[in-house]
Specification:
This protein has helices at about 5-15, 20-35, 45-65, 65-85, 90-105, 110-135, 135-140. By secondary structure, it is mainly alpha-helical. The chain has one domain: Globin-like (Orthogonal Bundle).
């Protein structure tokens, strides 16, 4: 990721923070719509899960300017996700739901440059997490 991409992600996320609860609802609704089979991996009451999602996103977004600082937490998260039943093929589904949510939430502020920056951020983190959880060969696929 370039410094400009990091800045775009961080600036755009600051516009999501005020609508964090709504954004989390939209994200999970979208993910369960496109991949209904993953719903079984989540609790019936999603309130805490939605809070965790937004808190994790905040940590990641704030840490993008010093990526090494967030990699240990990303590694631990990836390992935990395996125990929940997550597989490498779930990562593109999550990424798609995230980008879709951001596009809806940011409206006109969702420019091609912002979209590209978020894709780069998600691609970087998801490839790292897949490699940590499943090995380097899976991350390359």
């Amino acid at each position: 990721m370039t410094p400009e991409q990091v800045k775009l992600v961080q600036e755009s996320f600051s516009n999501v923070v005020p609508i964090a609860e709504q954004a989390a609802v939209i994200f999970y609704d979208r993910m369960f719509e496109v991949a209904p089979s993953v719903k079984a991996m989540f609790p019936a009451d999603m309130a805490e899960q939605r809070r965790k999602l937004m808190a994790t996103l905040a940590v990641v977004v704030n840490g993008l300017s010093n990526l090494e600082s967030i990699l240990p937490a990303a590694s631990a998260l990836a390992t935990r996700h395996v125990s929940y039943g997550a597989r490498p093929e779930h990562y593109p589904v999550v990424g798609g739901a995230l980008l879709w949510t951001l596009e809806k939430g940011l409206g006109e502020a969702w420019t091609p440059e912002v979209a590209s920056a978020w894709k780069a951020a998600y691609g970087t983190l998801s490839a790292f997490m897949i490699a940590e959880a499943y090995g380097k060969a899976q991350a390359a696929e």
